[in-house]
Write a structure and sequence with these properties.
- The chain is built from 9 helices and no strands.
- It is elongated, with a radius of gyration of 21 Å.
- With 142 residues, the protein is mostly helical.
- It has a single domain, classed as Homeodomain-like (Arc Repressor Mutant, subunit A, Orthogonal Bundle), CATH 1.10.10.
- It holds the Pfam family HTH_18.
- GO terms for molecular function: DNA-binding transcription factor activity; transcription cis-regulatory region binding.
Length: 142
């Protein structure tokens, strides 16, 4: 039995108590459950049974902050919604926690370099007409 456990350990298979996920990962999971909520660091810390100071300190150790993590989650989800749905931009803004669509658009542009409405106008996203045309052209030339 000891030989099997040793072999598993050498192969990178852990036996024993599972390591807990980092705080940033746990916080991401919590926030992602309801991105439209008006999250604050004290509320998130309370939900994770931590003080706000401990939350901020541990996140800093992991190289992030509460506001950066929340903004990243919201913008990533917004990009996904804009690409995968036909929801109006103002609805997407609300779904990711922005009450003001113009504020959302400013933050989105700062993050991705294009406006939310430009995402909708692009036809070169994965799985769209441009990709299909390019693939068809590539196959006809080969």
């Amino acid at each position: 039995m000891a030989g099997v456990l040793l072999w598993l350990a050498q192969e990178g298979v852990g036996v024993g108590p599972a390591r807990s996920a980092g705080l940033a990962a746990r916080l991401r999971t919590l926030l992602a459950e309801d991105l439209a909520a008006p999250w604050t660091a004290p509320e998130a810390a309370r939900a994770l049974a931590l003080s706000e100071a401990t939350l901020r300190r541990r996140l800093a150790r992991e190289g992030t902050s509460f506001s950066d993590l929340l903004a990243d989650l919201r913008m990533s989800r917004a990009l996904g919604l804009l690409q995968a749905t036909s929801q109006p931009v103002n609805r997407v803004a609300l779904e990711v926690g922005y009450d003001c669509p113009s504020r959302f658009a400013v933050r989105f542009r700062a993050r991705f370099g294009i406006t939310p409405s430009m995402v909708r106008g692009r036809v070169d996203r994965i799985g769209t007409n441009l990709d299909r045309r390019r693939t068809a052209k590539d196959h006809s030339e080969g």
